[in-house]
Amino acid sequence: MVFNDTMTRLIAFVNRKGGSGKTTTAVHVSAGLADLDCRVLLVDVDPQAHASLWFGLSCREKLDQGLYRLLQGKENSPLSLVKKTGVNNLDLLPGGFGLTEYEAENSHKRGAVYDLARLIAPFFNHYDYLVFDTPPTVGLLMVSVLTATRWIIIPLPMQFLAMEGLAEMVRLLYKINASGNKGLRLKGIIPVMHDKRLKISANIKKEIIKVFGDKILLPAIRPTVKLAEAPSFQQTIFDYAPACTAALDYRRLVKKIKELNGTGENSGDRGK
Ligand SMILES: Nc1ncnc2c1ncn2[C@@H]1O[C@H](COP(=O)(O)OP(=O)(O)OP(=O)(O)O)[C@@H](O)[C@H]1O
Ligand SMILES: [Mg+2]
Q: Angle CA(7)–CA(13)–CA(19) in degrees, nearest 5?
């Protein structure tokens, strides 16, 4: 079932491995696209609310007035739930702890996986991109995102056990592809914390190319502690350390993602 008939691009950053760079990448791809004059809504689908915290939202009541409120299906003006981030063209639909309650209460509800896809439709006229940051667990929230989005992109740390869980992720993608979201495509894998001097980085990249082909690899993000520091200042790396390697890498990645379209072997999308 496909709900998005507009030109809005939907991109979810997913990896069921915790701490794999999903939030960092969702924040910087969103901010980078916004800087290229695209209107972007970052949808924080994580009870941990790390993307929301990055932009300074921490109060539980305020967080619950975001995606949690939308998922309750009673909001007459969904746009009023959107918050400014301080970055031009980039808005945020906050996540937060309420999402844990949503998941617990609705996991067994028939058709619940379609709620998100249906409820985000009012945003399509207002944004060029909806970017989803996702939790590290395969539950209702993750499956809802996979049902709602068109593209998934996997940030993959170039570390021991990196490939662990990747096969499971891809199986889940195919399952949802077959059952509920025919337009869903794996659009790329991003090597993150990538040090090309290390043998392990080269080995993991080789393994990815063997399994998925070389078109799947998107520009890599090199490791830097600056990425861990930036959220404490509620800044993106583009503001906090614009000359650092990660800022340059994320700019290159954003340019590539903007160029991705519906043609090519990993796609099948209509539209752009
Ligand atoms: N390229 C990088 N270089 C160095 N550190 C990085 C890089 N990318 C992310 N990190 C750091 O790794 C940690 C985990 O990143 P992040 O929070 O983005 O992962 P996540 O997948 O969203 O985690 P979770 O599964 O808990 O949501 C953070 O401290 C972040 O600053
Ligand atoms: Mg995260």
A: 165
pLDDT band at 56 (very low <50, low <70, confident <90, very high): very high
The CATH number that domain 9-258 falls under is 3.40.50.300
Residues 152 and 264: their CA atoms lie apart, in Å, by 15
- pLDDT tens-digit map of 233-260: 999 999 999 999 999 999 999 999 999 9
Residue with tokens 């985000």: 120
CB 248 within 8 A of CB 239: no
Query: How confident is the model over 95-125, as pLDDT tens digits?
Result: 999 999 999 999 999 999 999 999 999 999 9
How many CA atoms does the CB half-sphere of 104 hold within 13 Å?
6
Q: Are 136 and 17 in contact (CB under 8 A)?
A: yes
More confident residue, 83 or 270: 83
> Which residue among 141, 193, 227, 244 has the greatest number of ligand 1 atoms within 8 angstroms of its CB, and so is best to mutate?
227
All residues with CB under 5 Å from ion ligand 2: 22-23, 50
State the distance from the centre of ligand 1 to the C-alpha of 255, rounded, in angstroms: 21
Relative to the CA of 221, which ligand 1 atom is closest?
1
Contact 106, 54 (CB under 8 A): no
